[in-house]
Amino acid sequence: MEQPPAFSFKGVVYSYKGASSPALSGVDLEVMPGEWVVLLGANGSGKSTLAKICNALLLPAQGSCCVFGMDVSDPEKVPLVRQRVALVFQNPEDQIVASIVEEDVAFGPENLCLPQTEIRRRVNAALELTGLADMKRRGSYTLSGGQKQRLALAGALALEPKALVLDESTSMLDPEGRDSFLERIAELNRHGMTMIQITHRMDETVFASRVVVLSSGCVAWDGIAADFWDGAYLYFDFEEPPELALYRELRSRGLVPPGTRPRVDDLLESLWL
C-alpha cells in the first residue's frame, strides 16, 4: 500500500491576532517520507509558522495539515503527531531543560513514560549520533553554542521521530559547527528520516532533494534542488553565495557533471577530474 505523505498541507491559512495580513495564505505543499526539503524565504514569509503547524504547536485557521496521515487538528492525534515530528529551533537554550547533558536528552523519553532500559538506550544512541557521548556528564551550561545545538538535536532524536523540522537551527553556529551539524543531519536523512529545513542561507540547500520558497505566506517556487541551483533562485531577492555563481558558470561551460552539488570541495574535485 502506498505511504501517505509525511506532511500534507492543503489550503492552509493562519493569522496572528492583530496582524494586518495572514502569516500563511493558502499553502498547498506535500513532503514525502525520506525527502529533505529546504524551505527558504524572507523574514515574515511564514516559514516558522509552517514549522509550528508541522508539530501541532499551531493549528490551521483554514485548510488542513496531515502528518503521516494524521490530521493535526484532531486532539486525539496530537500526541502521536508530536512523537512522529521533532522540532529543533534557532536558539538551543529554548529547548534545554536540564543542567546535565544526559538528563536533558532523557527528558523527552521520560515524558513518554518509557521503561528505564529503553530510556537509557535512546539517550546513549542520541548522544552517539550527535557526537556528545563523551560529554554526557557535563553541565549543559558549559557547552559551546554548537554543542548546545547538538544537544537540542540529541533531545529531539531521543524521541525517535520519523521526521525532523529544523527552524533556522544553524543560524547561531560558526562555519565549522554549521558544517558538522549539517553532516550529522545528512547522515540521518540517508537512513530515511524526513527533513524540513528552514533557513535563510541558500548554501544550505546543498544536501536537499527539493527547495521550496515562501513569499508573503504563499508557495512562490517548488522544485528539485538542481533546478534551483541552475538559476531559479535568481528570480528571488536572495544574496547569491559565491559557490552558486561558480556552479552556474561551470555548468554553462560543461565542466560540472550531472549530480554535482554546489559545494566548493565538490566543484574543485570536478575541475581536477
Largest beta-sheet characterization: 6 strands, mixed
CATH superfamily heading? P-loop containing nucleotide triphosphate hydrolases
Helix/strand-derived class? alpha/beta
**What is the radius of gyration computed over CA atoms, rounded to a whole number of angstroms?**
19 Å
The helix/strand order is: EEEHEEHEHHHEHEEEHHH
Strand order of the largest sheet: 6-7-8-3-9-10
Low-confidence region ranges: none
Q: Tell me what portion of residues adopts beta-strand conformation.
A: 15-25%
Query: What distance lies between the first and last C-alpha atoms, to the nearest angstrom?
Result: 44 Å
Helix content: 25-40%
Number of strands: 10
Question: What is the CATH class?
Answer: Alpha Beta
CATH-scheme architecture? 3-Layer(aba) Sandwich
Shape by Cα distribution: globular
- Whole-number average pLDDT? 89
The count of domains is: 1
Q: At the third CATH level, what is the topology name?
A: Rossmann fold
Separate helix tally: 9
Structural description of this entry:
With 273 residues, the chain is α/β, with parallel strands linked by helices. It has a single domain (7-239), classed as Rossmann fold, CATH 3.40.50.300. The protein has 9 helices and 10 strands. It has helices spanning 47-54, 78-84, 101-111, 116-129, 145-157, 175-190, 225-229, 242-252, 264-272, and strands spanning 7-14, 24-31, 36-40, 62-67, 70-71, 85-88, 163-167, 194-198, 210-215, 218-224. The strands form 2 sheets. Strands 6-7-8-3-9-10 form a 6-stranded mixed beta sheet, sandwiched between helices. It is globular and about 60 Å long.
